[in-house]
Write a structure and sequence with these properties.
The protein is built from six helices and three strands; from the N terminus they run E-E-H-H-E-H-H-H-H. The protein has about 140 residues and is mainly alpha-helical. The chain has a three-stranded mixed beta sheet. A hairpin with a 2-residue loop joins strand 1 and strand 2 (about 15). Helix 1 (about 20-25) packs across helix 2 and helix 4 (about 80-90) packs antiparallel against helix 5. The radius of gyration is 28 Å and the shape is elongated.
């Protein structure tokens, strides 16, 4: 789809980009004029933006930086710190050094994400305990 294009799906629906939709709301912009001309041809038309399907089960390593990898290794397997540094140095010759080090890290620590489940379980237990406990904060009115 082009940046400033209106794609006609049927007489009542037109697919546009989010940027086009935002600009079409501003009086006097090119997008506003394009949408106005389109509405003259199709008076009942509505704008629709394309939604991108996202994979909810996608594994992300957002907070897995070199520093955090080093911290994790120092706590769980301190003997691998030297090998980790060698991996970082040797990966510098590759096109994407971070990906090479990440692959090595995940190979050595396949259960890296287990700590998240531990905290999720603890949070669920704490929430359940709060729901069962009576409210100890009773406010009395002195008369």
């Amino acid at each position: 789809m082009k940046k400033n294009a209106i794609v006609t799906i049927d007489e009542t629906t037109a697919r546009v980009t989010k940027a086009f939709q935002r600009q079409a709301r501003i009086f006097g912009t090119d997008e506003y004029r394009m949408w106005k001309a389109y509405r003259e041809d199709f008076p009942g038309a509505k704008m629709e933006t394309k939604t991108i399907k996202r994979n909810a089960n996608k594994r992300t390593y957002r907070n897995l930086t070199y520093v955090n990898m080093g911290r994790y290794i120092s706590v769980n397997a301190p003997q691998l710190l030297e090998e980790f540094e060698k991996q970082k140095d040797s990966a510098k010759a590759q096109e994407n050094p971070y990906r090479a080090v990440l692959a090595w890290f995940l190979e050595k620590f396949p259960n890296y994400d287990d700590y998240k489940k531990f905290f999720e379980d603890k949070t669920a237990e704490a929430t359940a305990a709060e729901d069962e406990a009576p409210d100890s904060r009773v406010i009395g009115l002195a008369g």
